[in-house]
Amino acid sequence: MVGKKKKKGSKTVVNIVLGIICVIWLLPTLGLFVSSFRPAADILQTGWWKVFPHQEWKAGDTIQLSKDVDLRGPIEVNGKTYTDDQLKAGVKADDSRLIWENRRARTVNSQEQGWKVKPDLTLDNYNNVLTGKEYKLKEADGSETIQKGTGLSQAFWNTLTIAVPATVIPVLIASFAAYAFAWLRFPGRKTLFVIIIAMLVIPIQVALIPVLKDYTALGLNGSYLGIWLAHTAFGLPLVTYFMYNFISQLPKDLFESAFMDGASHFTIFSKLILPLSVPALASIGIFQFLWVWNDYLVSLIFIGNQPSVQVMSMKIADLVGSRGNDWHLLTSAAFISMLMPLAIFFLLQKYFVRGLMGGSIKG
Amino acid sequence: MAQTKQRVSLRAVLLSIGILLANIVVNGLIFMFFRDSTINPLLTAVLAVLWGVLGVYLIYYTLTWAVEQYPDYIRKRVLPYVFIGPAVIILGWLLVLPALRTLYLSFFDASSEKFVGLSNYAAIFTDHLMATALRNNLLWVFVGTLACVTFGLLIAILADRSSYEKLAKSIIFMPMAISFVAAGVIWKFIYYYQPGDSQIGLFNAIVTYFGGEPQAWTSMIQPWNNFFLIIILIWMQTGFAMVIFSAAIKGVPEDIMEAARVDGAKEVSIFFKIMIPYISATILTVTTTIIVFTLKIFDVVMVMTGGQYDTEVVATQFYRQFFMYRNFGYGSTLAIVLLIAVLPVIIINLRQFRKQGGF
């Protein structure tokens, strides 16, 4: 009995500690998410946590001082004296706060504390970041400036255009190869497979310079085809290894009976193996897709600064460099780029985790 | 089966040569079409998927069909190479040969014209910028990996004993899904610094709330700014370690731990004496995976600081030398240094493969 009680108590502690860790892990993303819906001026003035209900000083009565008050000396308001600096920053007096309303006209505002519940949220940021149109931005001091959007929607489609073929092609090619490595016997089989395993963890940097030279010679730079092929090559070792592990574990009888019926290897592969491998194909396909979707380095090298082909990660990285303080654009752009991975993560978590664990074998 | 060796018919030879040529020509045309096409990107994508699935499939289909025109003993020999052919060609062209060419280039000067022996390698360890990159990368590997593995294990154990395991694991694992560039934006916002009292960056807001001085975390206080970048890696990769550890922990037999508890062992000693040894293989795998990953870290540094303020790592320095300074000698050498760093892992992988039976 005593032991059980103790266990229950420790479980509460575990729940609380884990809860704190989870909140810490969630806060960064939450901050980005909330900020992406706030008006541009608000983001720069107050922290994103202010959208939640909180106490705030609100304008109250205006107190008119006599016009000839000397700002350099002590200033008398409601029987107490303050300095100019104090009134500039706001100074507490009883329940209210005194602050200059209009220093030149000598008016002081007596602010009162109250709850602010309704946050100002807007979809403007998303509009502005997706289109390349110009838009007006209201600054904190009331002035307006004209800014240009970023045209992220083009980059979104570019990313999709690159990611889908760069997933399908390597997965198909690797599956054929994996089948041959698993079930066919041929000279050079072992050597070739050893090379594939050696390539699993190879840093792609070792390939970039020569490949870029070849691409320049072939005119493949900045083309979709070039980047598909690059992603195919860099993904192939892992996908082949992953598919090999799956296909080689399939029962041997399966093949023997199919062979008895006179089926060719091609038929066995496409009619038997591929349908059986759907879970594995989904797992590694998702892994490869997200890898390409989130990639920055490969696009940076092979796309360069061709705006018509640029992917989202490049666009966002450019934004960080050129408009690092435009948080209304940065936060919404980053969130748009996260939409696809997050959707896949929440909808296909089982395959996602399996693909990642398969990817971990390469360690 | 009376005849042991069938004759190869002329028809089969002509057919197979024709099919091979047709494949080369057709795919060559498709290649040129995609290279030069300026049509709508979405349409390109659809066509590419069609080609990627149907076209690639057709290559295999026609080639195997051609091989099947030959007698059995030839077919058996050639067929495997049709299956692995495309993979081998692409890997050879874009990964294996380039690696060798990079090794070759690393012995030449900036414009790849003059042979300079090992002087590029010597420069890497003496040049201030490159030495900083090496130091920072070691910092990343050591601190980042240690933190990811420790937190991953800790959270896996906590989650295992909590009443909302699945939810907690989802939350910790989620950052794994997003890109380093997006994560860079997230954390740049957290570290954001502006002079004055009101701070919109969470980090500085907390610091000022407790009466501290706000800081520009990623640019000032070198070399500690590197740690603030490493935190991003920890935030993203701990989930990976946790998921793997979580699966491993569930494999530790409950009765052994129960027996130890009955004998009066404390939870802490159960953890160190039973659980850790039991999952040591998993710990090793996770550690090497994260080390390999961290060695190649690039995106975070590029987005957060661009390598300024002494935060350069090997991969960003590689990019700078290769892409900005056009120094192919230094660039290749840095790539080879990365390769040498992962060499032990490659050897471990190959040994593992042989131990598991190889073929």
TrEMBL record, chain A:
Give the family this protein belongs to, as stated in its UniProt record: Belongs to the binding-protein-dependent transport system permease family.
PROSITE patterns from the entry? ABC_TM1 (PS50928)
Pfam entry (one): BPD_transp_1
Which species expresses this protein natively? Answer: Paenibacillus monticola
Query: What is the first-listed, main subcellular location in coarse terms?
Result: membrane
Query: What is this protein identified as?
Result: ABC transporter permease subunit
Annotated ABC transmembrane type-1 domain ranges read: 156-348
Q: Entry's Gene3D superfamilies?
A: MetI-like (1.10.3720.10)
InterPro entries referenced in this protein's UniProt entry, alphabetically:
MetI-like (IPR000515), MetI-like_sf (IPR035906)
Annotated membrane-spanning segments are 12-34, 162-184, 191-212, 224-247, 268-291, 327-348
* Record keywords, A-Z: Cell membrane, Membrane, Transmembrane, Transmembrane helix, Transport
TrEMBL record, chain B:
Question: Which subcellular locations apply to this protein?
Answer: Cell membrane
Q: Name one Pfam family in it.
A: BPD_transp_1
Annotated coiled-coil segments of the chain = none
- Indicate yes or no for the key word Membrane: yes
Query: What is this entry's stated membrane topology?
Result: Multi-pass membrane protein
This protein's source sits in the domain of life called: Bacteria
Does the entry feature the keyword Membrane, yes or no?
yes
Task: Quote the InterPro entries the UniProt record gives.
Answer: ABC_transporter_permease, MetI-like, MetI-like_sf
Every ABC transmembrane type-1 domain range? 134-349
A GO BP entry: transmembrane transport
* A GO cellular component annotation in the UniProt record: plasma membrane
Protein family per UniProt: Belongs to the binding-protein-dependent transport system permease family.
Which PANTHER family does the annotation name? ABC TRANSPORTER PERMEASE PROTEIN, OSMOPROTECTIVE COMPOUNDS UPTAKE PERMEASE PROTEIN GGTC
**Name of the protein:** ABC transporter permease subunit
* Organism of this sequence: Paenibacillus monticola
Species lineage = Bacteria, Bacillati, Bacillota, Bacilli, Bacillales
